[in-house]
Amino acid sequence: MTMMELRSFAAGKWVDAGDSARDIHSAVTGALIGRAGGSLDFAAMLDHGRGTGSPALRAMTFHQRAAALKALALYLSERKDRLYELSLHAGSTRGDAMIDVDGGIGTLFALASKARRTLPDDVVMADGDLEILSRDGSFLGHHIYTPRQGVAVHINAFNFPVWGMLEKLGPTLLGGMSAIVKPATATAYITEACFQMMVESGAFPEGSFQLITGGTGDLLDRLGPSDFVSFTGSADTALMLRSNKNLMTKSVPFIAEQDSLNASVLGPDVTADAPEFDLFVKEIVREMTAKAGQKCTAIRRIIAPQNMVDAVIEAVSAKLAKTTIGDPAVEGVRMGALASASQKKDVLEKAAIIGSEAERVFGTDAPELHGDGVEQGAFVSPMLFHCADPDAAVKVHETEAFGPVSTVMAYRDLDHAVGLMNRGQGSLVASLITHDPQVARTVAVGAAAWHGRLYINDRDSMKSATGHGSPLPLLVHGGPGRAGGGEELGGMRGVKHYMQRTAIQGSPDMIAAIIGQYVPGATKTEATAHPFTKTFDDLSIGESITAGPRTITQEDVEHFAEFTGDNFYAHMNEEAAKASPFFDGRVAHGYLLLAFAAGLFVQPDPGPTLANTGLSGLRFTKPVYFGEAISVSLTVKEKRPTGKDYGEVLWDVAITDSEGEQVAGYTLHTMNALNAT
Ligand code: NDP
Hints:
Elements (H helix, E strand, L loop, with lengths): L3 E3 L1 E3 L2 E3 L6 E4 L6 E5 L5 H17 L3 H16 L3 H7 L6 H25 L6 E8 L7 E8 L3 E5 L7 H12 L3 E5 L5 H14 L7 E3 L16 E5 L2 H8 L2 H5 L4 E4 L5 E4 L8 H15 L11 E5 L3 H12 L4 E2 L14 H15 L3 E4 L6 E2 L12 E5 L7 H4 L6 E7 L2 H9 L4 E7 L3 H11 L3 E7 L18 E2 L10 E2 L3 H4 L2 E8 L1 H8 L9 E2 L16 E9 L2 H11 L4 H4 L1 H6 L10 H12 L7 E12 L8 E13 L4 E11 L5 E12 L4
Parallel strand pairs: 1-5, 8-9, 8-11, 9-10, 11-12, 13-14, 13-20, 14-19, 15-17, 18-19, 20-21, 25-26
Antiparallel strand pairs: 2-3, 4-5, 6-7, 7-24, 16-18, 22-23, 26-28, 27-30, 28-29, 29-30
The structure holds NADPH dihydro-nicotinamide-adenine-dinucleotide phosphate (NDP).
The site of NADPH dihydro-nicotinamide-adenine-dinucleotide phosphate has 25 residues, from helix 7 and helix 11.
């Protein structure tokens, strides 16, 4: 094959590999297949990101960024075959490549969709609830997120050249920050091909993302307070990079995802003939062999009840024996190579360290390989170890052999199992296979604080469960301690890393103007026409009508009780109502108040208000006795485009009594048609 000369994409231009480029070898044959690393002007790259890319992204609303992300994902998914092809050189089977490529593209789709459904069509994200800071409501507090005004630097690991880039890039771009991506050199040719498609797609403005193939030079020394670093790789490199003096001096945030001794526990309730036993074995074998065990979430420690250890070893070994190893381009090969010769060396060294405390019960030094010319490839056999004394052992709990290597250990009781799980000193994921919810509760209470994700599976969920090793875009990925202390993804949680949270204080009008929503106490504008007759586009925030009064009579309440069947004593039994600490006598139904309020504010004719889709945040704050009169105000609080030909309008509804005091409040949701185009 022709040598791949990898380029970088810096300050809007492609830069060729230079004289000092690093060599890249095929994982399958060991042959030299490419070179990466040119001479880059890091100052210009940062200027370009900070001065061109990030401002362009900040000018886009969350919905515009989400639409661009979706367009990018569509563009990539139409071209992914090229990425599968290249992944063969990294030793990846088609299944392995799909985890990386489809997993990455799917992450973009999921994040784009979640952003459109949950974030405003605005550049400011309001966070949490309004805080009332003064008795009369004239001084309020809130929190907002706005994009950090620098550049995000992403340093990625070799094992996920596509997913690793996209799972960091999606949240960054949604958050309104541009990124400089630095893939690991060993598999950077796959990242570069994907990146080239990203640039061609034109989905994002100039400067939104740049690529470094090769070294990062003095890039970290040039970062400033509004920049950000996200790292995935080894604990040693993370420690070296995060202790960079400039990063510490400028308080540049650094999140890391690094080594992790992930565990899987077999519940004490599971017998050898239970469906959970087969499930446990299947999950272990899949995690050991998918991507040849080069997943940061793979199962490294297998924790089983004492009386089940032999059965687990036997069943896992039997399945591993069926794993055909070799060139992933050859039909029938189930497990490919490690990413490079240096990874193979590293895995064998780490396996030897584990072997000093545990006996190898499956695996060989010279596995049978399928394919031609693979003698120099980075292949290893799956290796299963048994550690007879996990309490005394140290290495098995701290040595991550980043390949198809896992160690079985026994527990006496559930507390012991939890103790062993937590000996990993912080992991990305731990799984528990049990059919007993109380076992799940005990393990979660004892172990959750040490693990980023807990995956529980049994006969009821196994058909639809997503797998121990799969990080999901909507759930957090990261873990405490040894796993790096970072957190990525988690739906919109990951987006917030790339934004600054700021507390804002001010009058209702100030807060309303900043967050783009009506808040109680802010100036309302009297609607000239009934707002239900207006389209989504024509409604303005703060536009309001008031309606009423309507007197509530005893007959109304009794009629309502009979009609609906709601004869609750507070409405129908004077003596019992009086005995309640909340009432001085019979009161109107809350639901009657809501129905009357709708009767007061609704405009009945067909028009642009298409449907009432719900109400939220309902509170009944004061009882209404017979003879009192209620009024209602209806105010446009927030408008949320849906991407369809109608948008969601949120209305602040306040029902007040004859004294002007609020008796009920809620947010009404409607769908309103857009202007005809
Ligand atoms: P490294 O920590 O060596 O590399 C990770 C990334 O950091 C790569 O992009 C690498 O680039 C880059 N890097 C290395 N040195 C520097 C530097 N001085 N300045 C800037 N960037 C740098 O990890 P590997 O990818 O080589 O993997 C080694 C081990 O890490 C694995 O065997 C495994 O144990 C662990 N690992 C853990 C993962 C996890 O999430 N749990 C994921 C991946 C790896 P380059 O390739 O160009 O050197």
